[in-house]
Amino acid sequence: MVNAPGNPFKDFDFSKMDFGKVLSDMKVQVPGIDVDALVQAQRRNIEAVTQANQLAVEGMQAVLRRQTEIMRQTVEETQTALRDAMTQGAPDAKIVKQADLAKVTFEKALANLRELAEIVTKSNQEAADVINKRFSASIDELKALIKTK
Predict the structure, then answer these.
(1) Is residue 122 in a domain?
(2) Strand spans (E) along 1-43
(3) Start and end of every Phasin domain (predicted)?
């Protein structure tokens, strides 16, 4: 059996690679293209994507925190409602009280869902804004590169 050659890139970490240095070291010259400007533009693109991802993660963390708070409040309110339901009283009064409680609970659940949706929407909008701004800037940079050549 012949030993197959190993993958030379198996243990290589591309995330730590400085592509600008690599291109400079290779003396890559592309007529009409400013390689340094291109590398810097790509660096800014990566920074924008990183920032957008960070905003998305922070948004999801905010949703999880709020969901946890909603769950805590719901458990507390349910305990109180169960205690109230166990008290003695007229059956008609208990039915009215339970109907009111069901209505309030339903309205609160809708409000909570609306609030969570707003948090997600805001987070997504912030992340999209970062990407949109970078995309516009990238197009402007490309236009400037073309004009200078």
Answers:
(1) yes
(2) none
(3) 39-135
